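Suppose you are handed only these lines of text.
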Amino acid sequence: MAAAPILARRIARSGVLPLCCRPPSWDRAPRQPPGLPLAPCRAFSNNKIQVELDESSGVAMMKFKSPPVNSLSLDFLTEFSISLEKLENDRACRGVIITSTIPKIFSSGLDIMEMCGKNVEHYGEFWRAVQEMWLRLYGSNMVTVAAVNGSSPAGGCLIALSCDYRIMAENPKFSIGLNEAQLGIVAPFWFKDTFVNVVGHRIAERSLQLGSLHPAPEALKLGLVDELVPEEKLLEKASAVMARWLALPDHARQLTKSMMRKAVLDHLVAHREEDIKNFINFISKESIQKSLRMYMEMLKKKKS
Ligand SMILES: CCCCCCCC/C=C\C/C=C/C(=O)SCCNC(=O)CCNC(=O)[C@H](O)C(C)(C)COP(=O)(O)OP(=O)(O)OC[C@H]1O[C@@H](n2cnc3c(N)ncnc32)[C@H](O)[C@@H]1OP(=O)(O)O
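From them, the structure of the protein bound to LUC3G6IP can be written out as follows.
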């Protein structure tokens, strides 16, 4: 995936500072008092995502921190892809745990405002960033564990589904699923394929058609998440799971992962431009724009 020049152009236009132009990122870990041995931990943070790599375990903790709801805007997606790329290229990193700093929300999915009332160029750029994020995460060589500590609709669910293992806080108020149909839109084929690979065809078909958001206990029953734990135990559990996965030789696990995911990844890679065109045509339709506007209004009304 030769994404670097595209990312660089997008960053330049979006105004988000690329990590390579910031003060040396690995220097931003807290300084140790003199005399103490250096903690084997490196950290980098950008506007919307914070990452800490523990070199002794090879595990990075990635935390979404984009209030109010960690929606996946173009800037967020760009930062996410850059963070994943940095970790992927870091020989010290073998696994990443993904979670959120926002109470009750893992991620609210794609930022609907990025898909409303914008021009064709913007839709194309946005959709390429969504694709890139998924290609990096689903195709990652690292062990990826989602610690889902809040609601996770649509694009948020896709992030969790793209990981190797999903642990969710056992709060029945938190829900997860691909609810695109509820917005009057359609989950793209690679969202659907990722979902099918986790829960199987029948469950995916029903859930997608109904645009279901499954409360945590139901998500566990469907196999959409692998286990539920009390929220305060989530990160501890994620670290334990990660240690179990990292006990295996990387090359064997990586080749197996790649064998399991290759067909789905290759499908998008082979049809990337066509997929972008389809998205642009679809999202530009007046009827779809109207559905999205109504959905946003409904969200706002729910508040008042
Ligand atoms: C023929 C085939 C062609 C193929 C074409 C394919 C097209 C496919 C296109 C796209 C796929 C789409 C994927 C998506 O991810 S769409 C996004 C789906 N997300 C949702 O439905 C979540 C909506 N949000 C919620 O349900 C709730 O906000 C919540 C549960 C996440 C949090 O609830 P709560 O804590 O009560 O917060 P609020 O509802 O008050 O929200 C706060 C604030 O944030 C705004 N907001 C919420 N979600 C989003 C979002 N996804 N994007 C943008 N903005 C969001 C919300 O409106 C509030 O704003 P405010 O009133 O201004 O404060």
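What can we learn from it? Confidence is low (pLDDT under 50) at residues 1-5, 7-34. Residues 68-69, 71, 105, 108-113, 151, 153-155, 179-180, 183, 185-186, 188, 278-279, 282, 296, 299-300, 303 surround LUC3G6IP (CB under 6 Å).
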